[in-house]
Amino acid sequence: MTCRFFGVSMKYLSFLIFIFSLVSFNSYAKQSDLSVTMKNIGHLYKKTLKAGDNEQKVQHISEMIELLEKSKKAKFKSGTQEESVQGLNKVISVLTLAQKQILAGKIDESSSTLLKIDGLRKQYHKLHEPPSFWELIFG
C-alpha cells in the first residue's frame, strides 16, 4: 500500500520538495553574491576616501567600477532591474569623473565628487528595502 497525500504519492511529493529547495537555494545564493559584491564596493569606497596616495585612489576606483560592471549582470528583485542598473550606471559615471579629476590633479573636486556616491547609494538602496509592516497590511 502506498502512502498518498492529497492523491499524490510521497515519492513524487518528496521529489517536488527537493526541486523547490534547490531552486530556492540557487535564488538565495545569487542574491547573496550580489550582497557580498555590494559590501566589497562599500569597503573599497571607504578605502578610497581614506587613501592618501592618488595612485591608491585610482586603483580603488578602478576596482569599484569593475565590481559595479559585474553587478549589472545580477538578477535584481522583481520590477527593479531597470532602475537598479540605471543607478549602477550613475555610480560608474561619478566614479569615472572622480578618477579623471584625480589624474588631472583636482583632488578637492574629486573628493566632493566621490561624496555624491553616498547619496546615490541611499537613493537606490530604497528600491531593495523590504516593505514595512504597515505597507504589507495597507498596501
Description:
This protein is mostly helical. The chain has one domain: Cytochrome c/b562 (Four Helix Bundle (Hemerythrin (Met), subunit A), Up-down Bundle). A two-stranded antiparallel ribbon has the order 1-2. The model has no long low-confidence stretch (mean pLDDT 81). Helix 1 packs antiparallel against helix 2 and helix 2 runs antiparallel to helix 3. The chain has five helices and two strands. The radius of gyration is 22 Å and the shape is elongated. Keywords: Signal.
Topology:
Layout: E1 4-5, E2 8-9, H1 10-50, H2 54-71, H3 81-103, H4 107-125, H5 133-138
Antiparallel strand pairs: 1-2
Helix pairs in contact: 1-2, 2-3, 3-4
Task: Describe the structure in brief.
This protein is an all-alpha fold and 139 residues long. The protein has helices spanning 10-50, 54-71, 81-103, 107-125, 133-138, and strands spanning 4-5, 8-9.
Can you tell me the residue ranges where pLDDT is under 50 for at least 5 consecutive residues? Answer: none
Provide a count of the helices. Answer: 5
Q: DSSP strand (E) fraction? A: under 5%
Q: Can you give the mean pLDDT?
A: 81
Q: Kindly state the percentage of residues in helix.
A: over 70%
Spatial sequence of strands, sheet with the most strands: 1-2
As for the number of domains, it is 1
CATH architecture: Up-down Bundle
Q: Determine and state the CATH class.
A: Mainly Alpha
CATH superfamily: Cytochrome c/b562
